[in-house]
Amino acid sequence: MKRIIERIEEEAARGFESAGFNPKYAKVTLSNRPDLAEYQCNGAMAAKKEYGTAPRKIAEAVAEALADSDVFSEVSVAGPGFINLKLKRTFLSQYLRDMGNDGELSLNMAENPETIIIDYGGPNVAKPLHVGHLRSAIIGESIKRMGRRLGHKVIGDVHLGDWGLQMGLIITELHERRPDLVYFDENYTGEYPAEAPFTISELEEIYPAASARSKEDEAYKAKALQATHELQEGCRGYKALWQHIMEVSVTDLKKNYKRLDVEFDLWKKESDAQPYIPDMIQKMKDEGLAYEDDGALIVDVASESDTKTVPPCILLKSDGASLYTTTDLATIVERMKLFSPDEILYVVDKRQEMHFIQVFRCARKAGIVSDDVKLSFLGFGTMNGKDGKPFKTREGGVMRLETLIDDIDAEMYKKIVENRSVRDKDAEETAETVGLAAIKYGDLSNQASKDYIFDIDRFTSFEGNTGPYILYTIVRIKSILSRYREEGGTGNGPILEPASDGEKTLMLQLSRYNEAFENAFAERAPHRLCAYIYELSNDLNSFYHETKILSEENEEQKRSWIALLDLTMRVLEDAINALGFSAPDRM
């Protein structure tokens, strides 16, 4: 379906053309004076130069040409030549009938679907997920779902950190604690045990202990660096330990991501890119892009137009070790080879922006990607506590993600039980559903690049711009539709012309769904879709409070309102599914 604003612009263009002016000036926007009109056109101001005519005269001529419009009930001129537009109620109701009959709810599927890889999540193995991992998972998942909803092939990759010093630290600490393990026997040639010699809890204790010791004990750190090197060189015992670490960690990670309703198509790792590094490095050397500087291998990526210093890309350190830059470049090589994507989007902490500027420039300079492949960086801000500092536990430590989810669920359970709207046996499941909405909407409703305050009390409120408020609106509609059926109501009406200003406001907001959704995805901005459903929920609730829906005696009018509520519910549920959460039947 065409966006409603496109239909409006087509009609405005007819007015300009009929009045003898170029239809290119018929650009329409939402009115900045909604008390006067719903839309406005400022094209007469722009047409003044071409026609040498006062903008007001141009606007008046266009308004006169549109006097018989099937789209506008009123076309008026204000000030020096602003054209104010009000929609005919018949036009608006027909647009919503068409929208209701459209299986895609007016969303336009991509004419040329793209393959888009989204790199999000990015946890390190052997470490528990903490609140710092929340934003990447939530934002990346929503963009993935939005893209798929519009028909694109979107591939989500968790991109695990599994190949750095943390592996050497864990292996070294295990060696210190349990030197008798067969993995450390250089003469062992048999099969290694199928079961890991540690649990996830033990693993999560081992790493921070090893990390802390390495900062105080140089000899210990040297052993860890050597273990890392030997692992990367293919040491058989260390590779077997690494495999155990991966299996135990990934099982735990999947369990926690499932609680967030986040799913990855690929569980690729830094180590998967290692086979691509030698040829990539050699090619850059052969082409004269990479050169040695103080023993390190680097590529210059600065540009004359840079307003800030962009350091060279370091591919190999002086000891021959690769870095994150090397791995990220090799991962792009792998992705191009396996998937030929049109875009690779990284959803990561905004403090990594310079790193990705270097990586993207190096990838283009080396011909790893062609000019028509988009490399995108979506940097997100910090999730802070009420004190404005990064979110911590009461004791001042980094909060585990599962602890945060448990706290939100407990708060939602308390409020739902107090509300007494859900039976005890269903309250726990409902609390989890609403709690997830509180977390995700609380994050996504903020512009990704900005820091925000994570306020459990506010995010779990049933009032204001929150996830529970959006869900409460959906549940309210479900309740009305259920009562309608219980009272013998069957089927929906056609949607009639709005009977009140409040109803028209709701219908106008519904008609803008495709524009809001498609723009939110195009800008990779979930907060814009959140803003839309919040306004739609407000408009629905205002309409509900001023309208006696189920007691309406005119059956045709009642059926029309039921159809309008049903369409609103479908739009809200479609939108929250794209954002990554769902609504219960009661709450």
Structure description:
With 587 residues, this protein is α/β, with parallel strands linked by helices. Among the domains are: 84 residues, Gyrase A, domain 2 (2-Layer Sandwich), CATH 3.30.1360.70; 95 residues, no CATH class; 179 residues, Isoleucyl-tRNA Synthetase, Domain 1. It is 51% helix and 10% strand. It is built from 20 helices and 13 strands. It has a four-stranded antiparallel beta sheet. A hairpin with a 2-residue loop joins strand 7 and strand 8. Helix 4 packs across helix 17 and helix 16 packs antiparallel against helix 20. It is globular, with a radius of gyration of 29 Å. The model has no long low-confidence stretch (mean pLDDT 95).
